[in-house]
Amino acid sequence: MANGSLNLWIFNKNKETALGCQIRKKIIFDIAKGLAYLHEDCIQKIIHLDIKPQNILLDEDFNAKVSDFGLSKILGKEKSRVITTMRGTPGYIAPEWLSSVITEKVDVYSFGIVVLEILCGRPNVDRSQQEEDPHLLGLFRRKQEEGNLMDLVDKCSDDMQLNAVEVVEMMKVAAWCLQTEYARRPSMSTVVKLLEGSDDVEGNMNEEYPNGLTPEAREAYSSTILPSMLSGAR
Questions:
Q1: The dihedral of CA 16, 134, 171, 49: what is its sign?
Q2: 5 in helix, strand or coil?
Q3: Protein kinase domain: from which residue to which, for each copy (predicted)?
């Protein structure tokens, strides 16, 4: 893939090569479409189990492709959950892995972490942070309670800063995917519909997460969405 993996771009502190807001939104949408395909549109349900920026590849136009199915698990359509040993990458693993009984919602949780990383421009664990919490999710929860989510918007991108209000609204999509109870997380097809601007889905999210996307942010979010393709394994 011409532009390599996502981590090379979102964790890059070079302002000249920092991705703008529209490209990041499209990458988020592409990942959501890819996961929705794996979970619902394949002949058999596929749980990826290792969603992280290193496994998201970018082509010359920054179209994102889900890759590396080395840890994935296949379920029959009649099955809703599977018992398996813990697998994945620390920092992206959902809480229910402690029970070893998992569903496709573990991918939804990992997706939520990746969305935060894309919007904040920092990895989920960053030991270089001296004054802040090195764990992005912990920092996100604290800033959320304080009402200071704008502090987390990637400061290496002037375009992200200019669109900070919209970026904060997108963080709420991540929050919906990161709920501790897996049953309360949305399906990836629901996330796709939300990003496409579905009023019905937005209403459901507002019930689960009261500070959901505003109509203005939703319209801005869906205005540049383009179709996605799913890559094969590498």
A1: positive
A2: strand
A3: 1-201
Give the phi and the psi of residue 2 in degrees, each rounded to 5.
-55, -40
Q: In this structure, are residues 50 and 88 in contact, taking their beta carbons and an 8 Å threshold?
A: yes
Retrieve residue 81's tokens.
């959950």
Tokens of 49: 């189990």
| Torsion on CA atoms 57, 58, 64, 67, rounded to nearest 10 | -20
- Is residue 81 classed exposed, middle or buried when 0-12, 13-18 and 19+ CB atoms within 10 A define those classes? middle
Q: How many CA atoms lie within 13 A of 175 on its CB side?
A: 23
> Residue 205 pLDDT more than 70?
no
Write out the two tokens for 190: 């629901």
More confident residue, 199 or 142: 142
Q: Where are the beta strands (DSSP E) in 28-170?
A: 45-47, 56-58, 64-66, 73-75, 82-83, 101-102
Single pTM value for the model: 0.84
User: Which residues on neighbouring strands pair with residue 83, listed in sequence order?
Assistant: 101
Q: Which domains does the chain have, with CATH numbers?
A: 7-222 (1.10.510.10)
Euclidean distance between CA atoms 55 and 61, whole angstroms: 17
50 is catalytic: yes
Would you say 114 and 92 are in contact if contact means Cβ atoms under 8 Å apart? yes
Nearest to 66 by CA among 57, 75, 74: 57
Is the CB of residue 8 less than 8 Å from the CB of residue 63?
no
Label the pairing between strands 45-47 and 73-75.
antiparallel
pLDDT tens-place string over residues 68-93 = 988 888 876 666 666 666 778 888 99
Q: Which entry of 50, 68, 107, 154 is annotated as an active-site residue?
A: 50
